[in-house]
Amino acid sequence: MRVIVFFIVSFILPNAFGQDSRIEEILRHFSPDSLHAELRRLSGDIPVKINGGTVTIKSRLYNNPGNNQAFQYIRQRFTEYGLQTQGQVFSTNGVNLLGIKFGTLFPDRVCIIGAHYDNLPTGPTAPGADDNASGCAAVLEAARLLAQVDLPNTVIFAAWDEEELGLIGSNAYVTKGVQGSPFLGYINLDMIGWDGNGDRATEVHTRPIAESVDLANKVVQCNEWYHIGLNLEIRNPGVINTDHYSFWQGGYTAVGINEEYNGDMNPNYHQASDQFLHLDTAYLNANSRLAIATLATLAFDKSQVGDPSEIAALAKIFPNPASSNLTIQFPHAIVSPFLVEIADTQGRIVWSATRSETYKVTIPIDTLPAGVYSVVIRSSDFKSTYPFVKQ
User: Fold this and answer.
1) Spatial CA neighbour of 230 closest among 272, 275, 285
2) Could you give the CA distance from residue 152 to residue 155 in angstroms, rounded to a whole number?
């Protein structure tokens, strides 16, 4: 399998856009201490403060009080990071949580990273450190790192409930309707902290559904570009027993990143012994960094954002008539440079400016004499003209 991965990397890299200094900067601020502390809190290894009180999460089983405590804690963290939070109730006990970071240029273009927060076994003690506090901790670290960064596209940080009962939470989300037009992809994290044989092997699960294979290739690229150092094993077709499968069933782009399910399965899986002390923290860090780099690649992606001429043709000019400021609103951002001009009835240019990577331009017109003018939006490839009245 590693020979196949090497072929994929060798084939793609010469044609890819390469490393992104913004992503390198994000990864420089990656904090193992922050990641490990979140995992330990969620798995009951250390107490956690929720709404001013201190509790220890003994179990995150779907009908255990710790399940709601985990939900409340993750929501608290999302709120502290400045994300807009949404809860999605889908059963008597089940509730998903979304933390949303809206894109600055293309808020309708959405990518998601997610992990399930419920766990097993039944009984009073179920730490679930690897399954799946490890994935949740990586989602929280991704939220911490990306929440304060201006991102062109919208990012959703998801915590799914009732995965252990049959992917119920993620399936409820997909059935309701995946957010995003277009939807750029989903990255699932489910058990990313066990490396019993020390081979640094990580599985990337994909299927030929939507752009899932391309997204798996992006994971491979990020491992190389950002020197993550994992030995990636592409699984195609990928497994169906975790939340990325809900997205595939809906026809959406998705991949799963996880430790080896085949050949090096965590012996503490679904046992009360699934504790933080058994995890390989360096391996956990690498998987988390890989997921964050891949998510950031999607979040910064500006490809296929629409034809500038079509976007300019759908511009709205308001208010009209106007007295002090005139606003040009596009349905989507125009990435490439374009010229905005104001011309009088004689065709003389009385104001001009170059803009790019924006979906709104505000023009001060308070010094213009009253009369009829035209806004001209143009580049070498297109031209759109809109009349307006200056009061």
Assistant:
1) 285
2) 9
